[in-house]
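Lab notebook, bench 4. The sequencing result for the construct came back, and we need a structural model before the next group meeting so we can plan mutations. Quick request posted to the team channel:

Model the 3D structure of this chain.
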Amino acid sequence: MSVLPMKHMIVCAKRHDRKAILEMLQRTEAVEIISREDDENDTVFNRIDVSQSAQLFTKNAAQADKALEILAAAAPEKTSILSAFAGRTPITLEEYETNTKKRDSVMKDVTDILRLDKELTEAKADVPRITTQIEALTPWTGLDQPLSFTGTKKTAAFIGTFPEKITEAEIAEGLARVAPEVEALDVNIISSEDNITSVLISCLKSDKDKIDDALRRMNFQRPPVSDMVPVEQIEAYDKELKAAIAKIDSTREEIASYEDKRGDIKFISDYFRMRAEKYGVLGTLAQTKRTFIIEGYVPEQYAGAIEQDLAQHFDVAVEMADPDPSEDVPVLLKNGPFAEPVEGIIESYSMPGKGELDPTTPVACFYYILFGMMLSDFAYGALMSISTFVLIKKLKNMEHSMKKTLTMFFYCGLGTMLSGVLFGSYFGDAPTVIAKTFFGRDLQVPKLIDPLSQPMKMLVLCFAIGIVHLFAGLVIGLYTALKQKRYVDAVSDFILWMLLVAGLLLFGLTTEMVTGMFALTPISPAAGNVGKVMAVIGAIGIILMDGRESRNWFKRTLKGLYGLYNVTGYLSDLLSYSRLLALGLATSVISSVFNQMGSMVAGTPVIGVIFFILIFLIGHVLNLAINALGAYVHANRLQYVEFFGKFYGGGGRKFTPFATNTKYIKIQNP
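Done. Here's the predicted structure in token form:
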């Protein structure tokens, strides 16, 4: 376990090489470039404004991504379940250079796809519009005049609707009440529904104004004006609708014809994304008319190679120096294959602070055990380890972060298998239930502890693991303090607490209350006396030293007594490990329930076996998913709260190199 030492790098080179140098550093993914704040008194160096170029590249990348979305809708990409783990497509530097030359033609394809999508959107919008117009004209199919018809030389015509179902007689009566002086009136109902009636009303031209006024009082509404007979207009709309649908189909086919361009568009999306990121860095560099400076951090193990590559390809001056103690140096962890998978757990909490040890290795050792104790089924662990192992071996281009996660669950599966053997759990009590149900035999699976019948024995094991976990944290804290030459802190914050807690544990194991509660055999009274002495020494030392920053002896004593009260925190931390028992029991009990449910329907030979298999598969898949999630969450909690609380402060800043943060491709370094 280690935190990689860093070098402070300063590169001074010719200005016309800055883009090429940045591209090379971007591909190495080993340099974190830092930007210094502008100095108003600096008249030598300046920074160029590249915001417009960066925005253009970002826009192009977004357009390419949009084109890919459009293409995916028209011609879905054929993928498998494993594609989510496959990672980005690797390409060589030569392939990168070749594809770069096609950027203009690919962007033309992107523009064409976006244009076609706009046409497709417009055609799709036409369909409901035309459909609505057809529906609006449908009630008027019985009318042999256009809706714009207003009458003849001697007559006036009113075409419209009433917002209710009404008869010709009721319309005539209503008009007679409002305009009694009008005698010549003809009412024709074109169509009638529950809440609307379409009519054609005719009268003499001399009575036009009177009927118009009367109709307004009766909530008469006129339809949209059309110069065509409704039937003819509907036929025209039908043709327009068919044309819109045909346009949709042809446009989709045309978009789908770009399917073979998908790879090029993915490349161009990442290409412009990389350029935007490069220009973002370019705008932070200090430059003169002929030179520029890059400043950043490089892991010491890569510093020599980077310096050599820069000197080989460019006319540069490179300085690699140890960072100043006041600098905010980023943190990069380096661990072996066993511990590296849990680096993400450390990063999720906080990177090590200055002078702190990398806790990854001890976290890995306990994490796999704690996870396994909570999932605690050999078959579940085997499924987890086998599936992750196959994925890792099968998918060679898997992203490193995904590979680390799967490797972590591979080791968690091994820990689960170990716990499953310890507790005799293989899909719960499936071997016993299957043997009894289908073969009429009693099968006893060997086990060292039965969590269901021996919960106290299981609880003692959980507390024992918790004690080891807590003391491991104290030992690491002690080592860190000694390494940093904080000798007083080493004694007061770690040694005295280890004496107090260990002494209380020894003394407790001699008392009938503790041993009787957990069904343990009391240890020797002599050991208990040793424990008393250890506890007293630890307690007195804590009282005297915990408030050592205060010069007043009375305040120092009070702070020491308050610090001694924190011994209850150790009891609380120890009780937290009972969750190992709780989650282990949950997994075992739920498994047994599903097994029993399956055995209850297994009476009929063939159908019973089918139902048993269905219940078995569904039940155990759900149980594995739910309890694996619970084991992951609570294993993290035991690390973050109980373990880290004893020695780990964190506060470090993660190393974030200038890299090719792409979505679809990754460039292989030569």
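The mean pLDDT is 89.
Will bring this to the meeting.
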